[in-house]
């Protein structure tokens, strides 16, 4: 039956934790959409400038993901996964301090730097997800990846709503510290739950890695195609967030 999955307990737990991580990660990278344009306007930023602050995120993810994929066997998928989540959570919290930076140039420059670092963490997280899925679910890669993409997409929907609500309650800093800290807690959970993967032995006694077969390399073809799609769609969306939500 097409909807019958004989997943082990370890696989179900891995899928649940990764889905939660995807959901929280998406919230953190999208929560500022409703109120950041207004804050940027107060600092004298133009719609083009703070629109590019959003758009540079996907540009960096698109560029850096294949590089992560090239070195994922040396770094390890679990290390890359958790490092990416911790980086994204830290960047989200630091992004909440931007309103304390006086002046237009300092504000926009810091926003670009933090957003780029956040994108580096997000790219690491996404690239490692491909590798973990390929190793944990060799017979259900498409289904599990689609499930995680659903969690990520749902997080992109929920993020602006939750971010806007927290902004209304506690101002600029509250959404970032609450949701960034939540992602930190999820990162600790994944650190404890996700299995540690080692290279599989081959028939000749060596170690099998994704570099042995470029078609199976989750850091190249899969990540590149996925991020090409994300880049084309999200660049258009995020570059227009500033003009759409700009205060009148």
Automatic annotation (TrEMBL):
Write the protein's name.
MFS-type transporter SLC18B1
What Gene Ontology molecular function terms does this protein carry?
A: transmembrane transporter activity
Q: Which InterPro entries match?
A: MFS (IPR011701), MFS_dom (IPR020846), MFS_trans_sf (IPR036259), MFS_Vesicular_Transporter (IPR050930), Tet-R_TetA/multi-R_MdtG-like (IPR001958)
The family assignment reads: Belongs to the major facilitator superfamily. Vesicular transporter family.
Keywords, ordered alphabetically: Membrane, Neurotransmitter transport, Transmembrane, Transmembrane helix, Transport
Species of the source = Culex pipiens
What is one term from the GO cellular component aspect held by the record? membrane
Alphabetized PANTHER family for the sequence: GH10249P, MFS-TYPE TRANSPORTER SLC18B1
- Tell me where the transmembrane regions lie: 50-68, 80-98, 110-133, 145-167, 173-194
